[in-house]
Amino acid sequence: MAKPIGGTKTAASIEEKGRGRPIKRVREKTSEPIQTLAEAVAARIREKVISGKLTPGSHLSEIALSEELQVSRNTLREVFRLLTKEGLLRYEANRGVFVATPSMSTIIDIYRIRRFIEIPSLAQAHPRHPAVKKMRASVDAAHRCRDADDWLGVGSADIGFHAAIVELADSPRLAGFYAQVSLELRLVFGLLQDPEFLHAPFIDQNTLIVTQVENGNSAAAAEILEAYLAQAERFILSAYARVASASSRGFE
Amino acid sequence: MAKPIGGTKTAASIEEKGRGRPIKRVREKTSEPIQTLAEAVAARIREKVISGKLTPGSHLSEIALSEELQVSRNTLREVFRLLTKEGLLRYEANRGVFVATPSMSTIIDIYRIRRFIEIPSLAQAHPRHPAVKKMRASVDAAHRCRDADDWLGVGSADIGFHAAIVELADSPRLAGFYAQVSLELRLVFGLLQDPEFLHAPFIDQNTLIVTQVENGNSAAAAEILEAYLAQAERFILSAYARVASASSRGFE
DNA sequence: ATACAAAAATTGTTGAACAGTCTGGACTCG
DNA sequence: CGAGTCCAGACTGTTCAACAATTTTTGTAT
Across the interface, do A64 and B109 touch by the CB < 8 Å criterion? Predict the structure, then answer.
């Protein structure tokens, strides 16, 4: 039974004032619960990318992926647009999308931003801010994951910890931006091997930081964080350099 | 002549290592020159939104808009995803997209971010940084526009000036984020009337700031900027309050 | 091997179709 | 008159099939 939709609508009323109707539900955005297929697919691809199932630089074929994920090409393209804006994928006209390949300058930029955002955010922290509880919860989680040798979990907990720091600034837009940057950082992590070496040194520093904040000593916490970030950047840059030189030597 | 595409590709090789081939052209990203239809359409809608042709809160019908812009619904949906990520549009499940409606808290958040980013960025500025030239060019443009009574142009120049400040931080991601926030701010501007009152007071402060930077006095510049931002926020908040109360009185 | 043309595969974009959801009005029942 | 119910119409969510434009691969002659 055909149901012709569009019909003969004159292209006049493209827009209609929508000020009147009271909004029914504002639907709070606690990491919005995936309402549409595209978002669900985006989440799956995101997961594949940061878990390393999709390696940086690899080409994502529209047909192959749409078959694998059981969605239409159109829907998949919507997803691609999403993830491209997030920085996880890279578009090349007429050639398709690729998983973004972080470079040295990517890492440098990410850490520049982390310093730029996290340090002031932490320095102005109030000990009773709700995000402090999240910080504490994250370090606890990190300790548990370490004891279980779950280093991917440690990585997640670490990201969560620093996301909580940014929440101290009480800016939803800033938090969203930081989440995006974190995603890119995870992409870098996936590129590197030996996650223990990468994460272990920082668990204790995080603990120290949250303790200082809880005690109302935000300035001291910020100082520790500054050292943390500088050290982490060095670690990751050198780890990256090792991997990069290895693969350019035709190791692959 | 039928041309069956997908065919019988086994869903195995979704991904292929792509490390080998040397990149042909890296295509520098000087605000990427609109390669695809979706990007072009996105630009047009963006323009419509910030120029006030599409007012906040209005519903964008997929069929109507796709007819007006002469693109298919599928393409338009890609565009919607783009602009939603940018914060210009808002999605509501099964109800479609609406032009985002800035609220008081939007303005507050935007200015919180501006302080957060612009002040440190300016404070650490080096007088010979290329972005300083852009700052100077922007204030010049603003003066010209003022003399021509082109207050929309003044607004653009002002945005450009502050974008240049952010460029001082040398972080592409930060600059991109700031550009996005600026877009939302323009949305707010569109909501307010009397642009002269809104922009005129700040032209001279911008001039003062760039002069200080050129003379190597970044700290002083940062102080002026801080005052600027505080004042601008107050101005805009009160202007917004006037408009909001007027429209809620059933003025429309 | 190298260069070049034909063929194959992929992306870019469209139009139609249909299922699911929301909206507003007609209708009914107090 | 007002509140609840049901229904049809409109719109979004998603898929499919097709074709033009472009890139990549392949085959062949030099």
Answer: no
**What's the CA–C1' distance between A157 and C16, in Å?**
48
Helix (H, G, I), strand (E, B) or coil at A90: strand
Distance from C-alpha of B248 to C-alpha of B252, rounded to nearest angstrom = 8
| pLDDT confidence bin for B249, thresholds 50/70/90 | low
Query: Does any strand C atom come closer than 7 Å to the Cβ of B73?
Result: yes
Do the chains contact at B81 and A38, CB–CB below 8 Å?
A: yes
Residues A111 and A172 in one domain: yes
Chain A nearest C-alpha distance from B133 (Å): 23
Cα torsion A103, A47, B84, A8: sign: positive
CA distance B100 to B113: 19
Q: Give the number of residues written for chain B.
A: 252
- Residue B164 domain boundaries: 104-247
Q: Which two tokens stand for residue A6?
A: 């569009």
**pLDDT per residue over A17-53, tens digit each?**
333 233 233 333 345 677 899 999 999 999 999 888 9
Residues A17, B55: C-beta atoms closer than 8 Å? yes
- CB contact at 8 A, B180 and B85: no
Roughly what angle, to the nearest 10 degrees, separates helices A130-147 and A195-214?
150
Residues A42 and A73 in one domain: yes
B8 touches strand C (CB under 7 A): no
The reply to whether A234 falls in a domain is: yes
Asked if B170 and A112 come within 8 Å (Cβ–Cβ), the reply is yes
Q: Does B67 have pLDDT greater than 90?
A: yes
Q: Is the CB of B26 under 7 A from strand D?
A: no
- Give the pLDDT score at B24: 30
User: Residue B32: pLDDT band by 50, 70, 90 thresholds?
Assistant: low
Helices assigned H by DSSP within chain B: 37-50, 62-69, 73-86, 104-123, 130-147, 151-167, 172-191, 195-214, 218-246
B5 touches strand D (CB under 7 A): yes
CATH of the domain at A175: 1.20.120.530
